Amino acid sequence: MFFNQQRLKPLYLYFTFIFLNALSIAQAHGFISFLDREYVDVQSGSLLGLGHVSIGNKFEPNHSVLVGVGYVPKLSNHKELMLFSFRYRYDNPYVVNIKEMKLKPLSLGAGFLMANHDDLFLELPEQYPKGYYAPSALRIIFNYQATLEITPVIDVYLDVSILDVGLASYVREPDFFYDNYDYLGLEGITNWGFGVRYAF
Fold first, then answer.
1. Which residue from 27, 66, 77, 191 has the highest number of Cβ atoms inside 10 Å of its Cβ?
2. Residue 89 burial (C-beta neighbours within 10 Å; 0-12, 13-18, 19+)
């Protein structure tokens, strides 16, 4: 069954709103006290759309979870779509001090990225044999970040991401990527973008 884009747009926003409010209420009442620092994360590019807004929370010093919604405008080669993400990030504790700022050169993450688009599906359309294709609307995303802490509450970062399908293609046909792309062929499967985080 294909997504109905207009019908699912408000559902994404509705369930995101409910989830974030439930998270805040649970934290306020001490049910999930291990989450100790909330922040807003705004990113552009790196497979998350023109703009992707997330609410994140750190647990322990170096671990974070984020849930977010993004938007991709209509272009000549694709339709408008919305994105919904749930991600985890590990921040390596190694830090380089640059005057009053801190460079954190190694953060690694993974998560799920769901797209709302008429040509994508979670359930395989009836014309294909069962198991012929994996769900095209739901992907696993892997990412690397280098972060510059401007102040204790403001970070800016570079993000480089890879989808599961890109990684699988790279593993199956490495020679194709070596021959046609730079940086050991990784140029052919990576996407990059920038973001900013503000901690409460």
1. 66
2. buried
